[in-house]
Structure formats: C-alpha cells, structure tokens
C-alpha cells in the first residue's frame, strides 16, 4: 500500500521538476522553503495525496539534473514552451513496454503557488491507466520545519523520504528489458 501511494508522489514531484530540467524554455526554480503539493487524479478511485516537500535552490537544481538524464533515456520527446499564463510541456515517454504521451499546463509562479495539469494517454499497461488526468496544486508554506533538510518529502502518516537519496528510488523504477 505504501508503494502505491509513494509512486504517485514521486512521479508528481518528478513531473513538477522534470519541466525544470528541460531547457527549450527555461522555467524558474522554486522558492526555497516548504512546499505543499496536492496530487489528485480526477475521475480515479485513488484518493488525493498531499505531501510536503522541503527544498532549496541546490535541491531543485540537483533534482532537475537527476531527472533530466532519466527523461532523456525514456522520452523521445520533451518540449516545453512559455505561454501567456505559464508553460506547456509535451512529452512522449516509454517505460517497461508502456508508451505514454502527455500534455501538461503549468500555471502560476514558483515563488508562491503553481498548478500542473497533465493529461496523458498510454499504450499498454492497465486499462484504468490509459487515459489519466493528474493535477498538482503546489503552494509555498514558508520556511522548512525544524529538523527537515532540503529534499525531504513528508507523506501522510509521517513517512519521510529525501529525494537526494536517489539510490533508494532506483528500486522503484521498472527494469529495462
């Protein structure tokens, strides 16, 4: 159960930063501090997931540099464009025999609040995941809490994972064929 809840969280955080790693148009880094991220899949039976992510400029850059090479390996397309209200991101990626095409719209700013709405279509995998909309609402809460370090993601129930511990995350990814 924890893995089922952890994967959407990590994917959401990666999605929020993946766009920062693609450089067709440059996205700003998030303001340092504690961000609350509400991740929802409208129309899905999965409950909304709210996490808190402590970050700083170095962590956002590091996550971008970590996610970007992974994206280059699994994505044949990663286009980001500035719009009047934010950014759009179009991608085509393939993992474990599942090909996914997605379109994301990022609205807001990286200093106080932003929303990422992603519509994706996949070929292969469970039928319930073939047409998925994901919405991430992120808002800056202030300074990180005492005892938190940049990179900490705190999930419901207090489970904490630091994204800088990338080796731990590798075990969650499907192995290439």
What is the structure about, briefly put?
This protein has helices spanning 2-21, 57-74, 166-170; strands spanning 33-40, 49-55, 75-82, 86-95, 98-108, 113-123, 131-142, 152-154, 160-162.
- Overall structural class, as computed from helix and strand content, comes to alpha+beta
| Content of β-strand | 35-45%
* Strand arrangement across the biggest beta sheet: 3-4-5-6-7-1-2-8-9
Q: Give the helix proportion (percent range).
A: 10-25%
From the N-terminal CA to the C-terminal CA, the straight-line distance is 26 Å
The tally of beta strands, per DSSP, is 9
- Average pLDDT, to the nearest integer? 79
Taken together, the total number of domains comes to 1
CA radius of gyration: 15 Å
- The helix-strand sequence is HEEHEEEEEEEH
Tell me the overall shape. globular
- Helix segment tally: 3
- Low-confidence stretches are 1-24
Largest sheet: 9 strands, antiparallel
């Amino acid at each position: 159960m924890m893995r089922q809840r952890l994967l959407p969280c990590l994917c959401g955080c990666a999605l929020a930063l993946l766009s920062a790693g693609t450089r067709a148009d440059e996205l700003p880094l998030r303001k340092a501090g504690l961000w609350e991220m509400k991740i929802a899949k409208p129309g899905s039976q999965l409950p909304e997931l709210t996490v808190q992510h402590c970050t700083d400029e170095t962590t956002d850059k590091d996550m971008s540099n970590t996610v970007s090479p992974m994206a280059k390996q699994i994505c044949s397309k990663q286009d980001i464009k500035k719009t009047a209200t934010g950014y759009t991101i179009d991608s085509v990626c393939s993992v474990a025999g599942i090909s996914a095409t997605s379109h994301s719209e990022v609205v807001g700013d990286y200093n106080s609040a932003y929303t990422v709405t992603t519509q994706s279509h996949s070929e292969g995998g469970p039928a319930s995941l073939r047409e998925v909309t994901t919405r991430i609402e992120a808002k800056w809460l202030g300074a990180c809490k005492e005892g938190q370090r940049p990179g900490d993601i705190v999930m419901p129930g207090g489970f904490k994972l630091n994204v800088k511990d990338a080796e731990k995350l590798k075990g969650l990814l499907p192995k290439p064929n």
